[in-house]
Amino acid sequence: MSRTAAEIATQPACWHRAAEAAASFTGFPQPGERVAVTGCGTSWFMALAYAALREAAGQGETDAFASSEFPAGRRYDRVVAITRSGTTTEVLELLGRLKGTVATLALTADPKTPVMDAADTVAVLDWADEESVVQTRFATTALAFLRAGLGDVPGVKPVAEAAVDAELAVTEPLPAAVLGAEQWTFLGRGWTYGLALEAALKMREAAGAWTEAYPAMEYRHGPISITGPGRVAWMFGTLPEGLAGDVARVGGELVARQDADPLADLVRVQRLAVALAESRGFDPDRPKNLTRSVILD
User: Fold this and answer.
1) Going by C-beta distance under 8 Å and a sequence separation of 6 or more, which residues neighbour residue 101?
2) Cβ contacts of residue 81 below 8 Å, gap of 6+?
3) CB distance 104 to 121 below 8 Å
4) Within the chain, what is the greatest distance between any pair of CA atoms?
5) Residue 225 to residue 249: CA distance in whole angstroms
6) CB-based contact 197:213 (threshold 8 Å)
7) Among 21, 140, 199, 232, which is most exposed with the fewest C-beta within 10 angstroms?
8) How far is the C-alpha of 64 from the C-alpha of 46, rounded, in Å?
9) For residue 72, what is the DSSP state?
10) Distance from first CA to last CA of the chain, Å, rounded?
11) Comparing C-alpha atoms, which of 262, 245, 267 is closest to residue 254?
12) 105-124: buried (b, 16+ CB within 10 Å) or exposed (e) per residue?
């Protein structure tokens, strides 16, 4: 088993621990605060998901930005930064610019990195740290931690229940049609759009796969043209009315596990990415052209 596959399998336990840690953490954004969430790559996609969840919970206006695209001069009550390594250049530069002007919270896996001093408050999720270059368990655990901090979110399972769904996701066989496809399009709505973006990224990072991601209702406004025999449309969360028929009409394979928590469904895609990489002769622990952290000169 690759190191990446082994780390993917630990996610249910990490999410349970995240829910426990969130119960005693006092640094979460407060209801009514205007909040921005930021990160790079996978962390940005988790930021998008959390921002949508926080608004769905009725806790206040919440935006999400890639750290390099954070709007200068826009006013927030708090900024949340997600950085596994604690060394990502764009995140540290942004926190440096914000220092003393707005409250900041950082989520990281490593307490021995510059982010500990760059942010006002830090949540260290070191039990979810990874050796892998490709992020899996830290990203989902960070989102599980933030999600648990929101309490009840209408239409969204508690994190403990999501972890139970993930226990099945790490063991059940992947469908042959999904394993044998030549192209995958990932779809989501609300908070699950961030998961769709992350699913597509995982497949590209680990396996060099041809993947795309869209808001589910936008898929029929052009992107459906790429779907056909031997190609997959994978929906995270509730399937929009009529979408199944549209995918069937063009000959695509639809994946829509509406019984499972969407975050647990992302675990299936992580496993698919590893399986596809191995089938193509790639090493998922050593993805092409990637490093564990992007540190700019």
Assistant:
1) none
2) 37, 38, 39, 67, 91, 94, 95, 104, 105, 106, 107, 115, 119
3) yes
4) 56
5) 11
6) yes
7) 21
8) 9
9) T
10) 35
11) 245
12) bbbbbbeebbbeebbbebbb
CB < 8 Å & 24+ apart, contacts of 94-102:
94/38, 94/67, 94/70, 95/119, 97/72, 102/75, 102/76, 102/77, 102/78
Backbone angles phi, psi at 261, to 5 degrees: -60, 135
What pLDDT, in 10s, does the model give residues 127-162? Answer: 999 998 899 999 999 999 999 999 999 999 999 999
How far apart (Å, rounded) are the C-alpha atoms in residues 121 and 104? Answer: 6
Cβ neighbour number for residue 85 with a 10 Å cutoff: 23
CA–CA distance, 58 with 40 (Å, rounded to integer) = 26
Helices (H), the chain: 3-9, 11-24, 42-56, 89-98, 115-118, 137-149, 159-169, 176-179, 192-207, 243-249, 262-279
- Per-residue pLDDT reduced to its tens digit, 267-281: 999 999 999 999 999
